[in-house]
Amino acid sequence: MLEKLEGRFLVTFLTVVGEGSFSRAADKLGYVQSTVTSQIQMLEQICGNKLFHRLSRGVKPTDAGEKLAVYARQFVQLGQMLEEDLGSLERPRGPVRVRALESFCVTRLSGFLNPFFAEYPEVTLLLETGFQGDIVDQVASHEIDFGIVPKDPEREDILFEPLVEENLVLVCSNELASRIRSEDWSGLTGVQVIGFGSRCVYHNDGLRILAELGLPASAPQAEFPSTEMIRSMVACGLGIAFVPEITMEKELATGTVVSIPLPKPVRMNHGLIWHRDRVLGTPAKVFRGKLLEYITRHPNRDFELSDRDPA
Q1: Are 164 and 267 within 8 A, CB to CB?
Q2: How high is the pLDDT of residue 308?
Q3: How many whole angstroms separate alpha carbon 157 and alpha carbon 276?
Q4: CB–CB of 139/161 below 8 Å?
Q5: Which residues, in sequence order, are bridge partners of residue 270?
Q6: Are 294 and 286 in contact (CB under 8 A)?
Q7: DSSP per residue over the chain, as a string?
């Protein structure tokens, strides 16, 4: 099979997987649709399997297509790495694909990126935000070089390198904190549990802790798409949130919000993850090394975040 495979077929195949459509893949690659169709048909002949289910709108990979996608990403990545490494003998250049929690990007990466790009201007960081489950899935399928997650996924195929231990806190406005001190948790009404929603590790752990404290399971939940919105909603008194302490560092320091005492400290160890079998290119190696160096020097705070006015 290997002698019949062509890299351009695999690039086309992965583009169809990503776009979910032959026509959109053709537009993205600058091909006519018949070229995409022909290349996929040839790839199906080489593999001896149907690779896509044709749907009323677009296409979806078959089981064989899903398996091929994992190996195709590694094949294409090795080709890209060869090109990058040959081109970066003097200076690292090329893309690094990373996905992290939005809250980590806001609080930890903002201070790191400026000096990193100043030192390595030809490295391109393709950074996306997501949740633990999504990030682990993308690392496992070789879609990204690195993930940054709040918990070790404890999988044999994924390596976990600790970065920084985060202290988690329950935070709310002073007014709401006064209510909590004067009323029993079970009697609180209209208290919103604020967070990113059920896909977020912090939010789910917060719900568990609040249930242990006695907050009714029927308490309403308010889901927001960004750390800045969560900070703002907590500060204005909408409800209570379970977040990394660094997220509300400025508000806690100024007394805009307060931390509610917990039965015991809660900490999570954020770490860098990548696939055990992934061969890291020069840009990825540089990114990993510089990130570890930066976190080691600045383990407790992000100076850019601390200098901002509260939302």
Answers
A1: no
A2: 37
A3: 5
A4: no
A5: 164
A6: no
A7: -GGG--HHHHHHHHHHHHHTSHHHHHHHHT--HHHHHHHHHHHHHHHTS--EEE-SSSEEE-HHHHHHHHHHHHHHHHHHHHHHHHHTSSS--EEEEEEE-HHHIIIIIHHHHHHHHHH-TTEEEEEEE--HHHHHHHHHTTS-SEEEESS----TTEEEEEEEEEEEEEEEEHHHHHHHHHS-GGG--S-EEEES-TT-HHHHHHHHHHHHHT--TT--EEE-SSHHHHHHHHHTTSEEEEEEGGGGHHHHHHTSEEEEP-SS-EEEEEEEEEETTPPP-HHHHHHHHHHHHHHHH-SS--HHHHTSPP-
**Residue whose structure tokens are 């927001």:** 224
Q: What is the mean pLDDT of each run of 10 residues along the chain (311 residues)?
A: 68 91 92 91 90 90 91 81 63 89 89 92 93 94 93 95 93 90 80 91 92 88 92 92 92 92 91 91 91 82 39 32
The rounded distance, in Å, linking the Cα atoms of 92 and 289 is 13
Distance between first and last Cα of the chain: 57
Distance CA 41, CA 61 (A): 14
C-alpha distances in angstroms, 86 versus 80, 91, 93, 285? 10, 10, 10, 15
Q: Give the number of other CB atoms < 10 A from CB of residue 106.
A: 21
Strand pairing of 257-260 and 94-100?
unpaired
Cβ atoms of 116 and 182 within 8 Å: the answer is: no
100: left (phi over 0), alpha (psi -120 to 50) or beta: beta
Unique residue bearing structure tokens 């060869």? 82
